[in-house]
Model the fold of this input.
Amino acid sequence: MATFRAIEAASGAVASLLDDTFEPDDFGGVELEFEVIDGSDFPDGLPSGAGIFVYRIEVNGTQRHPSGRSQAGGRRDLPMLPVDVHLLVVVSATDAGTKLALTGWIMRKLEDHPVLPPGLLNREAGDDPVFRTDETVEVTADDVSHEELLHLWEVLGAAKFDVVLLPYMMPNLLLESSLGVTEAAAVQERLARFGHLEAVGS
Done:
């Protein structure tokens, strides 16, 4: 489906979707930011807007590894690796009203656009696209237990900030291999060895 940069590109595409569709006039002219963040951003404080935080990536255990693609020369790539990407949309704002309004807007926007198109996925890839032109990525609401969410809240230090954590998942991203399957060459011919039988007693 995609190169090893699929997780990076898909996470950035979620942030780009929100940034592209955001209208400051809907929030009283307030300018908000939408970007991919990591754990180091929490201690320093979060900007007003939403951060896309990938906190868990795991191999999809329900999908059999799909076969690799056949190349032009007849070589077949190694099987693809299906992974599930779990992320949090971290909503932060200077006041409660804006934060709650932004939370509702994000949830509605991701529900309206549950599939990320290849143009958005490859926006930052330049001349080396990550996804093929016929590939998309699905974004769905994730089912996270209260215990796990509270643990994440404490570990990340999010309790120090007035934020909302929205759990989502990008299921079954297929990472392609750049290695081909090694196959033994077909048998071309069989050689028989003939000897001379010497006479008995000679």
Summary: Residues 6-175 form one domain.
